[in-house]
Write a structure and sequence with these properties.
Elements lengths: L1 H14 L3 H13 L3 H38 L8 H12 L8 H21 L3 H15 L2 H10 L5 H14 L11 H10 L3 H6 L9 H22 L7 H13 L2
Helix pairs in contact: 1-3, 2-3, 2-5, 3-4, 3-5, 5-6, 6-7, 9-11
Length: 253
């Protein structure tokens, strides 16, 4: 019986490429208390889901850019070159699997939680750590960051921490499926003393960022207070940016 199940599992993870099916199989294996097999199937499902999420996030970013360019297009006789370039990039991604980034993130989180529970029962601390890292990347919250820190061996933490924070810095919080807002992203960076990186991800004053338009001063104040707390001599690095946003605000007064 066990050998038969393992044979079926091997066939499944080798030939099934539709991530939703693997997620369902992992769920069924959990209900049957087949935790070793659940870990194998769930791990493969996570690989497919993460790959699909990467493509979908790129698609959503390009779709957002296409909408912005289309709204600014003046000519009615042809398509702007920049707009056409974006359309071409979208087409190169191929047909969509039909899942939003929000749905894919939800599946990744659901599968990660099942894998963590199964891995603890199977004494697979390596799986617990890897899935906890994935949970942080899907949620981008301070509690999940600290949870990874707790689970991670001290010798590995500097490397893991760098990976997590690089992921956070490169995350685009303006995408429709983002689990966090720009303000939340800034707050997490500041909690780790990364005020320089926080400044770098601020939107251009000319960009039409709805969140920053409404919370810009609050976000700048958060950065100002963090710099002042750590090294007030560096506050002058923020002043040119404040002036840019102040000029932008003055244009609308």
């Amino acid at each position: 019986m066990k050998e038969d199940l393992e044979y079926v599992i091997e066939l499944g993870i080798t030939h099934i490429t539709y991530c939703a099916h693997l997620v369902q199989i992992a769920h069924e294996l959990g209900s049957w208390e087949q935790y070793h097999s659940l870990i194998r199937v769930g791990t493969r499902a996570q690989e497919l889901l993460a790959a699909e999420l990467g493509v979908q996030e790129k698609r959503e970013s390009l779709e957002q850019k296409r909408a912005e360019l289309a709204a600014r297009q003046i000519s009615t006789t042809g398509i702007d070159k920049n707009l056409q370039d974006v359309i071409d990039q979208i087409e190169k991604l191929g047909p969509s699997a039909g899942f939003s980034s929000s749905q894919l993130r939800a599946w990744i989180l659901e599968t990660a939680n099942k894998l963590i529970d199964a891995a603890r029962l199977e004494s697979r601390e390596d799986v617990v750590l890897l899935q906890s890292i994935l949970v942080f990347k899907m949620t981008l919250t301070l509690p999940k960051f600290e949870e990874v820190h707790t689970l991670c061996p001290a010798k590995d933490w500097p490397t893991v921490k760098k990976d997590l924070l690089n992921y956070l810095v490169n995350h685009d919080s303006t995408l429709p499926g983002s689990p966090i807002t720009l303000k939340m992203q800034i707050e997490l960076l500041l909690s780790q003393g990364m005020w320089k990186e926080a400044i770098q991800i601020l939107p251009d004053p000319e960009a039409n960022n709805s969140e920053f338009n409404t919370q810009g001063l609050e976000i700048l104040e958060l950065i100002w207070l963090e710099i002042d707390n750590r090294d007030s001599s560096k506050l002058d690095q923020l002043l040119p940016l404040i002036e840019k946003y102040a000029r932008k605000d003055a244009e609308y007064m």
